[in-house]
User: Fold this.
Amino acid sequence: MASTPPPPFSPSAPAPLGRPDDASSRGPSQALGVAVLGSTGSIGKSTLEVIAASGGLFHPHLLAAHTSVGPLLEQARIHRPAWVVVTDPAAAATIGATALPAGARLAVGPEALDDLVRAPEVDRVVSAIVGAAGLRSTLAALDAGKTVALANKETLVMAGALVMRLAAERGAVLLPVDSEHSAIHQALRSGTADEVVRVILTASGGPFRTRESLEGVTLEEALRHPTWSMGPKITIDSATMMNKALELIEARWLFDLPAEKLAVVVHPQSVVHSMVEFVDGSVIAQLSPPDMKLPIQYALSHPRRLDGPARRLDFRLGLRLDFEPPDPVRFPAVRLGHEAAARGGTAGAVLNAANEEAVGAFLAGKMRFTGIADVCARVLDGHAYQADPSLDDIRRLDAWARQEVVTWVSS
Ligand code: NAD
Ligand code: MG
Assistant:
């Protein structure tokens, strides 16, 4: 483990919520400006609920979505951001001259979003675009030294080494929104980096943990998650357990942990969000009902904690917590995650791109459920591995991996 812990580890002294030290001339009583990237998605909507319940501590400075213009404009009418960004120009072209609420301005395209997240009015960026498309705006925010609440795990899966290096160079802070990583971030505050022996990520196991056979799983069945309500891509990733593979890689970079210190345990109730085991044998866990509003709020208010809208545990109702090891035969994706976390370099980007393309094919009815992990394993095995890739190398291999899946599907 590195001698200097990365930013998410550093024990930050509790400071009053308000302006960051280097901020502009506005007074401490003013709201923290939040840029919500992917505001119409599952995480985006929960973020707006957290902001609305904050009693004015946070203000959405910017809302961004890709094609869902109607819901985005409705959000703008309710939450009154200064900027509304539509990254898809064709979708933006459908917006009428009078559709924007007073006080809001429209910007179009991913380049405009990259510029706007750098604005001085933006204190925290919630990176909640789905998939590889979320990388560029997250990089722009880190480059500008922003504090990023990271839901888009793909950013770290694809380019973890580059992203963490950039954050360190610019003094930017990455705070996890992913519930497992939020739990780990909280548990790590119980000890020092060299006292950590293992980080245990919990997994719900998805809807097919106990199902006889995974052959013939339908789209409708795969989209029915037992404990979490999420966007379609991550819901399929949970059913294949590829989500846990991506999260292993995410944890490897975010907490600067070697792959052999990372483990996965299936926990069907989704109440223990992850655990850290320390040298003395203590295991520190974070518990709460499965509700993303809590990790989102923690990433917005860190290092403080706030009362908020997330659901609470009620121990009077009784609580059962089960744990079991993941079945490596049913869920080969977990092994792929361990492998990619251990290899580093281009492995994460290739696995992520192959999976994104394969999930797209499954959602379009062009691939079997069990084909997703199969094709990912083949593409990961067959790629021209590089240990220290540039962003261009990553983009090239991302495109290559997608093409491999397209070829596989069409054969
Ligand atoms: P979602 O599909 O519900 O929403 C995706 C959002 O991204 C939408 O606002 C959409 O407009 C926007 N978007 C899609 N394609 C885009 C593009 N090309 N350019 C710009 N914007 C684009 O997704 P979600 O479930 O909210 O997940 C968002 C991210 O958070 C993912 O990376 C996911 O892995 C991660 N995450 C989600 C959850 C969850 O509970 N939903 C939990 C942990 C992590
Ligand atoms: Mg998660």
